[in-house]
Sequence to fold (423 residues):
Amino acid sequence: MSRAAPSPVVENLVLFVRVLRRSGLAVSVGQSVDFMRAMKWIDLGERDQVFHAARATLVSRCEDLDLFSHLFDLFWRVPGKIAGARRRPASLALRHGPRSSRNLSLTSFSTARAGSHEPQVELSDRSGAYSDLEVLQHKDFGAMTEEELHEVRRLIAQTRWRVSQRRTRRMVCRQRGERLDLRGVLRRASRRGGTAIELAWRSRKVKQRPVVLLADISGSMERYSRLVLQLFYSLSHSLRDVESFVFGTRLTRVTPHLRLRNADRALTEASREVLDWSGGTRIGESLHAFNRVWSRRILRRGAVVLIVSDGWDRGNSELLKRAMRFLRDRCHRLVWLNPLLGSRRYEPIVAGMAAALPFVDDFLPVHNLRSLEGLASHLASLPERARGFVSAPRGTRRSNLRTSERKSTMAALGSTNPRELNR
Fold:
């Protein structure tokens, strides 16, 4: 014998319970059964009766009342009505015409919106709006399931980042500038017979600082590598001047791949480009290669450098120190993001992390969504001037400054031949 198909009322009620569970509400099987039984004792044509019966049987915590009310209004939405229509005393039967049975009034809430011209609200949007913030905000990335990681990637892709700006040497016209624009004054005076009536001002142009991203994709960072690439993709599409690199035993530039429109394709192409994925770790050699090949092109104009790594290094610690010293002296801010820093028992005692930490300006965690929020606010509030900024004394020749800078550069790179710096 074949089982009878469930009625549309039962299907909608079961779907509503699933929405509540996926949104973070703890709804047990017994509560679901009580909710089904309660529907037999109320008038399904009255929206308020359905709401109070569902709230009494499905909600067990007072802090979930606001979330339940929002989901109820969103799921059982009447076409052409706002979400607060639940408070209106009019019956459902009057809104949808004569009612031949109780099934018509309740199913019309979920089916009538298909014929309306209002924007559709998908089930994934209803269920993920609150669970991402409430449940996943404090959970470590390494302990998440595949479904939770997929939701986190979606949230990271929607994040819009900002970086502190810098004042350039170029002057632009401003209504309230810092300096008097003599050319502008003469230009305006020529329009009025040579009489300077209105003054013109100018100030230094403000631009976003360049951002350089360096990520460790070795075996110890395997749990976070995919999310780190998603973070780099979000930063690349939110900011203008962004350069992205990954390293394990060698350095690989992935900037062109992360500029693709499609996020999945961009991450896949970037993963294919990397040959040492989930392999060993040589942070010192990778940063040394970056300093020799890319630093002179990228680290000008006060760049902000972000390094994502747990500090586990199998290379030379002295080489890592020299590379970090060179990198710190050439950038505006050097930020090290460590996913292990979110643990209270973590101590930076491994050789790589201990060698790099003295040259780091900001040592921040990157293990959950809350840490990413802290990173976003930190990047947006970086100081305008670099740490330890000292202007050159009067009377100092520029040639002397260039000579001392060149010597420090060769010492940091471990080179005595000046021609090697131009490679």
